[in-house]
Amino acid sequence: MxxxxxxxxxxxxxxxxxxxxxxxxxxxxxxxxxxxxxxQGKRDLTVIANDTAMPDVGIGKLVRARLVKKAIVSHIGLNxxxxxxxxxGKLEVELVPQGTLIERIRAGGFGLGGVLTATGVGTVVxxxxxxxxxxxxxxxxxxxxxxxxxxxxxxxxxxxxxxxYALTGRNFNxxxxxxxxxVIVEAxxxxxxxxxxxxxxxxxxxxxxxxxxxx
Length: 215
Known about the structure:
It is a single chain. The protein is of the alpha/beta class. It has 6 helices and 12 strands. The protein has helices at 6-11, 31-40, 59-64, 80-87, 98-109, 173-176; strands at 2-4, 18-21, 45-48, 68-73, 92-95, 114-117, 131-134, 137-143, 147-158, 163-164, 180-191, 210-212. The strands form 2 sheets. Strands 1, 2, 3, 4, 5, 9, 10, 11 and 12 form a 9-stranded mixed beta sheet that branches. Strands 6-8-7 form a 3-stranded antiparallel beta sheet. Strand 3 (45-48), helix 3 and strand 4 (68-73) form a beta-alpha-beta unit. The relative contact order is 0.19.
């Protein structure tokens, strides 16, 4: 695990990378990392996240800067800029039911090929997708999701990279930390080793590649 300033951490991310970003309407999103992505102008990103937040908030800043090529998300209803870019053909959006989305990411983190879900069976969602029958019930086969980078926000990190989350800021963060080749963490507080009780470690240090230095 390396501790790097945010400029150096974001410099690791090339144009065209796939990035999973934690957060629910920007709550629990790594806001400093997102700002630095905009400042460095990282382009043609594939963003995998719960949502695209709101205009100029969280992931919405990436959308406004037109840095996102494709968004794999559960909804875009509160970001009209995402909708406008999608309708104009400037941004590809793959809408995935929230439960299916998180399970596809979880499957990617656990080395599974995908998940079976009844959500979408009998609707336009099933078009082009494989279906299987298990105990007389039909399911869609939804492939696992992984990314080049996971951009995680934690409430606490220690100097080894053990992470703890607070309240709803936990959301997607622990799951995406399992499903990316490189995990970059922005922590609200960095503390000495031992101050996070082992019972409170949600993401263990071996999963973390880069911890963004404070200050």
